[in-house]
Design goal:
By secondary structure, this protein is an alpha/beta fold. The protein has helices at residues 2-14, 28-40, 50-65, 81-92, 118-124, 127-132, 140-149, 164-167, 186-196, 219-230, and strands at 71-75, 100-104, 157-161, 176-181, 200-208, 237-238, 244-247. A 7-stranded mixed beta sheet has the order 3-2-1-4-5-7-6, with helices on both faces. Helix 9 links the parallel strand 4 and strand 5. Helix 3 (50-65) runs parallel beside helix 4 (81-92) and helix 9 runs parallel beside helix 10 (219-230).
Amino acid sequence: MTNLYIDLLKKVLTNTIFEAEPDIDDEVHRFVPQFTEHYIKGQAITMQPMVRLDNLQHCVESVIEDKVPGDLIETGVWRGGACILMRAILLQNGVTDRTVWVADSFEGLPEPDAGRFPTEAQAFHGRVITKSYDRFAAGLDLVQANFKAFGMLDGQVKFLKGWFKDTLPGAPIERLAVIRLDGDYYESTMDPLNALYGKLSVGGYVIVDYYGEHLWTNCRQAIEDFRKSAGITDEMIRVDSKCWYWRRSR
């Protein structure tokens, strides 16, 4: 029953019970309208493709089974779907000593530094991000209402509202087992890594939503810069063409 429940939950969160999800590898002129209709205008609680939720489930269940200590966090949550899934997996496995941290501005994407990241700044002010995607803004009240609707708004869920550079360095997080990065841009990927990676347990996971994207973000460069500076050589593993992850070995 656990797998059936989680499988159904993922379909509800992605709005794929009766609809197919957009193909992230489709041509941009087809993908953007499909993405906008299915996610932004639709009932989905997450814009993650099913394969990424499968990966998240694998990582969370892995740290539970392997007894890797620490909490779970997503930095950049949109409507909260991936975090709802993490809380549900803890619930289904009877885990009461881990917290799901929900970190977001709850105001949409941060504005990139145009001098350092002109590609990101151009995309940030472009029609797709501003008009079609509304800069992925989803308020805290909406996200908390979504948690409540799924019966997941409880003491094992903590919200961190604000820009990552302000909220994460002083967040009362002792240890982490899963870090899911969905901040889109260079700085909003680097800031969580600088603040949180030192708290990641050996055996824990870092999932990067846009490591494979190059058209509008410098996310991959942030990951490569951080891994180089920290001496991280753990293998990057592909989830799909855009999302990759690694498991901390030391």
